[in-house]
């Protein structure tokens, strides 16, 4: 892993030097001014977006060639979903930390035979091939040079293993069969969710714990969070508590992109069942957590409603916020996500109405909160 990090650092340094050399020549040798620079930045952004499209199209092309079928295609917040009835539906849906995604239905899983590498490699291969062809067969211009540079940058960021990128997924899949299966589950469950199936309606075997070794990876984190959602949806409170406690204890080792998700669901659980737990205020006052809570979506509205009810004893405002959460359900990426969040909101609204106006103690036992 150290060699991979060094390689990534060296390549990043080389690309950075090339970029600064390009800017120096463009400004000082070609005599461009600040006004020209502003247009250059705008064009650079558009060229970057075009390389993102090429990257996701590469996943789609190589996936199709190896037996995959389309589930969804997203660039920035623009998303197209393929439904079983043949419709392709456009919607706007953004994912934190992701500028694009091509999700596909995988072929049936078979140990050591499941086609994985070409689908994952397809994005970087498309960027690399197109960028090289542009440099080789077209007359060199500043804008074509920027276009190719953006392509090489995406190859570096996604191809060299790091965090939860394509290269890291390929590396993990080559190390253990369990990681290949977790990648398969991620794609398969996303397809079922796109078809409108909630987690509670999916096969139970998908949520069985899969031991992968002593070192946590983002694939472990993702599957453990799916288990959290499954236990929440099926009201298995003791298992939910155990899973959340495990993730909380290992929080420093959880991928940063998932740490706030763990905190969010831990907060929701504690507010309902352990409303005096000191971790509630620890989470609520966390700077990064406060930042995501400024965003208005169905999850943040649900969390705010829970805090208003259990900590500030304000039923009226809590119900108002929970009702407003319905307005954001259409922004969720799949119909299954929309269904499960709608069911959770409906359950939580019923729980608050049943409890009524909160007194000095509104915490419920797990059995009392099962409806």
UniProtKB/TrEMBL annotation:
Pinpoint the Peptidase M50 domain residues: 46-208
UniProt entry keywords in alphabetical sequence? Membrane, Transmembrane, Transmembrane helix
Transmembrane portions of the chain: 9-28, 40-62, 118-136, 142-160
Location(s) in or outside the cell: Membrane
The UniProt entry's coiled-coil ranges are none
GO terms in the biological process aspect are:
proteolysis
Give me the Gene Ontology terms describing cellular component: membrane
Pfam families in the record: Peptidase_M50
The topology of this chain with respect to the membrane is:
Multi-pass membrane protein
Cofactor field: Zn(2+)
Q: Which family does it belong to?
A: Belongs to the peptidase M50B family.
Q: What is this protein called?
A: Peptidase M50 domain-containing protein
What species is this protein from?
Enterococcus raffinosus ATCC 49464
